[in-house]
Amino acid sequence: xxxxxxxxxxxxxxxxxxxxxDEVGGRVSWATIDLGDRTSIDTQMGAIVRRHGRLDGVLHxxxxxxxxxxxxxxxxxxxxxxxxxxxATVWLDEATRSLDLDFFVxxxxxxxxxxxxxxxxxxxxxxxxxxxxxxxxxxxxRGWRSIGWPLWAEGGMKVSAQIQDAIRARTGxxxxxxxxxxxxxxxCVAEDRAASLVMFGEAGMLRATINGALRSVPVAHAAGxxxxxxVRDVRERILAVVADILLVPAGDIDPEGHLSEYGxxxxxxxxxxxxLNRALGVALSPSTIFEHPSLEGLAxxxxxxLPVVGDVSTETPEGSKxxxxxxxxxxxxxxxxxxxxxxxxxxxxxxxQALLDAVLWREGDEEEGYERLxx
Length: 375
Known about the structure:
Layout: E1 2-5, H1 11-23, E2 29-32, H2 38-52, E3 57-60, H3 75-82, H4 87-96, E4 103-109, H5 111-114, H6 120-138, E5 144-149, H7 161-171, H8 178-190, E6 195-202, H9 203-214, H10 228-246, H11 266-280, H12 288-291, H13 295-309, E7 321-324, E8 332-338, H14 352-359, H15 366-372
Parallel strand pairs: 1-2, 3-4, 4-5, 5-6
Antiparallel strand pairs: 6-8, 7-8
């Protein structure tokens, strides 16, 4: 096994890796690769093949997050989040296409499918991974897989216990233990499907979360045809929840102001939308706050969708499949969800710089850049 990274690992890590390798009769070596540099990837992948005689597969596990709203992120921040999963995925693929790999597994995230407040760039990057894997699989490339992982209990990206509690309360999802994670990995790699979503937690809530995110919901009314009485009623109900969460008088909340101005952090946003969903009988994601940041905008959105958003089916969306360890709705289980192949097609042009130029703006072109961004 060849592990890679941008900097040399510590001696302690090397000793631990070698000990693990000895247990299974294997060997571990290290190669320094900068995934943000195409030349570094090409050079080092070639060196690995020359040193070992072959390369059988690739596990692409790199990723980074920088949480925040759109107006807090500059070009550099967006590029740092997009590059490891967009540019590096394409460059690693192109650097290994002539090797007849047994597998190329991209480690995506549930965020690419479910979204997450403040992580629209990370969601887009993981969504690209899923779509790119589907394209390569459709082209006949052997072993191409993209697996959307949740948080891992051991290893991986770390978040606070408070955030984990908020995720569990909102979605039923818990951090994935290593044993169940490895089982899911082997299942996803063995089966002939390009993109999978892995979740661990309370089965009933997980299925509702998946269905709420992936089903196609018809819009009951065009935004311009919602009655003012409906909007007014929804606004008052939302205002009551917001005032309760923020612990401020309802009269002090500006309906046109951004809710983020009241000091809501990620936990506060999760609590707010949990309260809204309970009070209104809807299934809104906390990421809705980035699309409708004001109370007035949120009221219009909910008034438009209220008749249908609450109809969360307990059935799996057509064309998709959920697999679990058992069928008990109230058990803690690991679910592997097969993502429908129908979805946004990845860009045909593998010139990654052109892709990045389409979503990033250069200094002085902020207005033009915002117009090109779509979510």
